[in-house]
Amino acid sequence: MRETLNISQREFCKLLSLSGGYIANIEANLREPNDRLIKLIVSEFNVNEEWLLTGNGKMFDIKVKDERSSRLLSLFNNLPKKYQDVVFDLINSLYKADEKPSSEDDCKELKKGSLKAPP
Q1: Could you tell me the residue range of the domain that residue 46 belongs to?
Q2: Which residues, at least 6 apart from 49, have a Cβ–Cβ distance to it below 8 Å?
Q3: CATH number of the domain to which 19 belongs
Q4: Residue 60, phi then psi, degrees to nearest 5
Q5: Contacts of residue 74, Cβ cutoff 8 Å, sequence gap at least 6
Q6: Is the pLDDT confidence value at 109 over 80?
């Protein structure tokens, strides 16, 4: 799941407020995740609980809340995979950014593609 979301183990642990060792042990099958962790992952990442527990079904529960999100999802799904990767990387970079663009001009530059989002 982390690979699909392009999230490092460190980022994953930070998002869930967990230690790296705990997650590493779960990923190495040395420890079973508890119910609290399962619920947290399901909630935080919209992961299908059945898939998380058994591997059956779709990985994600996609719940579209409004028309804009529905349209965005439709457009994204119709892009070739290589462009989906670019869009995903851009959104991921924006999400990770510590600071929002400092001015309206920065927002315009970001939209034009000339201002790079922080890594």
Answers
A1: 2-54
A2: 38, 42
A3: 1.10.260
A4: -120, 145
A5: none
A6: no
- Name every residue whose Cβ is closer than 8 Å to that of residue 55 and which is 6 or more positions away in sequence: none
* 119 token code pair: 């890594």
Q: Is residue 34 part of a domain?
A: yes
Is 38 in the same domain as 78?
A: no
Give the dihedral sign, CA 45/83/104/119: positive
Q: Verify that 10 and 50 share a domain, yes or no.
A: yes
Paired tokens of 30: 């040395």
Q: Say what the pTM is.
A: 0.54
The tokens describing 13, both together, are 């642990």
| Average pLDDT value for residue range 55-79 | 81
In this prediction, residue 32 carries a pLDDT of 92
CB of 46 closer than 8 Å to CB of 63: yes
Whether the Cβ atoms of residue 119 and residue 92 lie closer than 8 Å to each other? no
Residue 60 domain-assigned? no
19 Cβ contact partners less than 8 Å away, ≥ 6 residues apart: 13
